[in-house]
Design brief:
Blueprint: H1 3-22, H2 36-46, H3 48-51, E1 53-54, E2 62-63, E3 71-76, H4 78-85, E4 96-102, E5 108-116, E6 127-132, E7 138-142, H5 145-151
Length: about 170
């Protein structure tokens, strides 16, 4: 083998190694499905607490209102934080908002989520909703009337109550 052939073989082997190493990794386009247990796994795998943005200007355990709790921490994935910062008027497909709901003593009571899925529920902003207990037990899922009813008052703000999208 000449030097050129050896270099080509090394490049090919390196590429094969990268494909094998990355085959189990999530891509940036990976999206969770609309099934609560797999959505919980997705949230945990993404380590949202350490890798996603907090709602701008709110920080951790900010003052909230019922039914979510008196203390809240809200996380946004990339598409959601970009839409909020750019005041796009609506969250794009793939946006995820995770709200941790705390008791007055600071104990986590529930985790509520909104996940924008194009075509999921067009009449209600295409939001998929899930409420979990702190250990991931599903309390509500899908199109809960309570979630939609309360957030529906903010239909002109894409069902978002925490801040303005315009």
């Amino acid at each position: 083998m000449n030097t050129t052939q050896i270099k080509m073989l090394l490049v090919w082997a390196a590429g094969l190694f990268l494909v094998a190493a990355c085959s189990g990794m999530a891509t940036s386009n990976e999206r969770p499905d609309t099934e609560a247990k797999s959505f919980w796994s997705y949230m945990q795998n993404k380590a949202y607490r350490s890798h996603w943005d907090l709602w701008p200007g709110k920080g951790e355990k900010y003052k909230g209102i019922e039914p979510h709790g008196l203390l809240l921490t809200t996380y946004l994935n990339g598409p959601a934080i970009d839409a909020l910062k750019m005041k796009r008027g609506a969250m794009p497909d793939g946006s995820i908002i995770i709200k941790e709901n705390y008791m007055p003593d600071g104990k986590l009571a529930a985790i509520t989520t909104m996940y924008k899925v194009k075509g999921y529920n067009p009449d209600q902003g295409d939001w998929y909703w899930v409420k979990y207990d702190p250990k991931g037990k599903v309390l509500k899922e899908g199109k809960p009337a309570g979630c939609i009813g309360c957030h529906g008052a903010m239909r002109g703000n894409d069902f978002i109550m925490t801040g303005k999208l315009r």
